[in-house]
């Protein structure tokens, strides 16, 4: 970038750093934001970890003092173990199902859009579920698959399915729809479709082109979308709170321990395990995406 | 996939998303949904009752969401600018810190917040702070890339070299070029805060419920028709917001042309 003498002079003015790159960027102005992140993000998480280790507040009947019991109860208790497994299964599984549908669809849409843009209406409809809290998605599932839901009137086998794993899966697929389709659409806008034309003219079949050309190009981004969406789905509480009559997920027990039994340390321990599962999925996917990106170069 | 195939696939997705919404509307306008949708006839009674009951919570949530949007712009804007442009090594640590609320489930953060700041709870300040914390990462995600954009910075350089003051450049170059990203940040923040459930479940004082909590209450205690009616009113409040951002993005994209 060429720097004129005039802009260098501007850079020396009060509140601006010497480098022209730092224009309008000042630490004092950024401090309130950093403070919010520290005071309401990092500190509560730190305290939550201490509480989970028995070193912070204790609830009714909980003994204060260092222990790993609150963290490890999730592995000791068979019920909680099932909930942890279900959380991982539903969270990651629903996103993978969405990806299997979403990757070919958004890829094809991006190519189609080069000729004719998709209507605003389709974009709004594809984005709508992101504005719906999990509880609303749970309610939708009850309307369709609940005991007196629409599908129950069609066939009794569907009645009450909302509270079993298939129904919960359906709910979380709906929940992750915009969280998968949106980022994928963004990724696909920069996809170079001429590569596919080349592969096709060289005689590769559509399926082969998809698996040997398209997928390797988009894979790092897809892995990252998987992690981000799965972290939100694993941590989501509203949907399962509405569908809590049958099969359970871990988020439900976190809330129960606190609001129904006032077990602060126990709830904190479960919350930390849930957070580790969500953050771990996110971190793992980011590292994997990074590795894939590097191996391609 | 050929053109017809794509159309069919997109249509199926549209049906997948809209079907439950339409079903909810049908239940909300049925006299008795147990007799089949509109089996006993069509009525606006449930919607009228729902509106009376849920109106205060809709208003309260809208006020909180508007305040959260303002806070995001006031503190998120400068923070995004600093992350995008400062050479400080500290910004990597701050970027990492900002991803925490995305990675850590809302209920975990809520438990942390009520343990540490119980005295902020009755006033509603803790709810507000929690919403700001949860929405700030989305504001940063929208603003940091555009503020880091080389072309934007080149435009600012040109304006400054022509003799404009910093404030004028900020107002006439930086903000207009970032308009689409700013709109994205505003809408996302509003929608997230308006529909946020975890914090309003754990942190909010029960005397002044937010609209997601009112919905949850309706789902667990009230008739399917009334719960549907309340859901419809909630969705009717959020759809215009989504439509606005889409239309705004489209118009700013077509105005922008090849060079910003």
Automatic annotation (TrEMBL), chain A:
The keyword Transmembrane helix applies. Pfam families: BPD_transp_1. Keywords: Cell membrane, Membrane, Transmembrane, Transmembrane helix, Transport. Gene3D superfamilies: MetI-like. The chain crosses the membrane at residues 22-47, 88-108, 120-145, 157-175, 210-240, 260-284. It comes from the Bacteria. It is a multi-pass membrane protein. Residues 84-283 form the ABC transmembrane type-1 domain. It is found in: Cell membrane. CDD domains: TM_PBP2 (cd06261). PROSITE patterns: ABC_TM1. Belongs to the binding-protein-dependent transport system permease family. PANTHER family: MOLYBDENUM TRANSPORT SYSTEM PERMEASE PROTEIN MODB (PTHR30183). This is Spermidine/putrescine transport system permease protein. It comes from Nesterenkonia lacusekhoensis. The lineage of its organism: Bacteria, Bacillati, Actinomycetota, Actinomycetes, Micrococcales.
Automatic annotation (TrEMBL), chain B:
Residues 58-247 form the ABC transmembrane type-1 domain. It is found in: Cell inner membrane. Keywords: Cell inner membrane, Cell membrane, Membrane, Transmembrane, Transmembrane helix, Transport. Signal peptide: none annotated. Its main location: membrane. It is a multi-pass membrane protein. This is Spermidine/putrescine transport system permease protein. It comes from Nesterenkonia lacusekhoensis.
